Amino acid sequence: MIGVDRLISNSELQNLDLIDLISERHSLVRKISEKAWNDKSEIYISNSEWYIMARIYKKRPTISYVTKNVEISRQAIHKFIKNLSVKGLVEINNLENNKKEKCIQLTALGEECYEKNEVLKAQLENKIAEKIGVEQVKILKDLLKVEWGIEQ
Question: What local confidence, expressed as pLDDT, does residue 135 receive?
């Protein structure tokens, strides 16, 4: 076993279709990743907050851009952004020449946390590679990057 408690047994995985297999593995690695960070840091960051941080890392998008390009409800995104701001991980600024729009960016602390978490995720990827093989991980990543032609 790679990390924290399994979500579903290996025998149950054998009976799942592709969609449910992807979902189960995604849930498992996200749970492990979140736990790895939260066990080492005093700043709790949820998976949804990491998702938003990944979208704004090294950028200064508008909040409206984030709400249109993140698969979370607009209300939830505003809540997560507020939480990230309270934790000192993001700053929200007025957009030049536009009093209505606001832009968001990671603070120095936010970038530091994001980069430390990238190291933890790389360690998890290495653990997976030790278990299933480096070539298998490469193949899996390549398959997930290919255009599947199923977007809505």
Answer: 97
Q: What is the pTM of this model?
A: 0.84
Q: In whole angstroms, give the CA distance from residue 80 to residue 48.
A: 7
Residue 100 backbone dihedrals phi, psi, to 5 degrees: -85, -45
- Is residue 4 predicted with pLDDT exceeding 50? no
Question: CA 136 → CA 29, 34, 132, 143, distances in Å?
Answer: 16, 24, 6, 10
Q: 117 pLDDT exceeds 50?
A: yes
Confidence of residue 100 (pLDDT cuts 50, 70, 90): confident
Q: Is 1 helix (H, G, I), strand (E, B) or coil?
A: coil
User: Coil, strand or helix: which one is 146?
Assistant: coil
Taking residue 105's Cβ as centre, other Cβ atoms within 10 Å add up to 16
**Are 114 and 106 contacting, i.e. CB atoms less than 8 angstroms apart?**
yes
Distance CA 65, CA 104 (A): 10
Q: Which residues lie below 8 Å from residue 35, measured CB to CB, with a gap of 6+?
A: 3, 4
φ/ψ of residue 3, rounded to 5: -150, -125
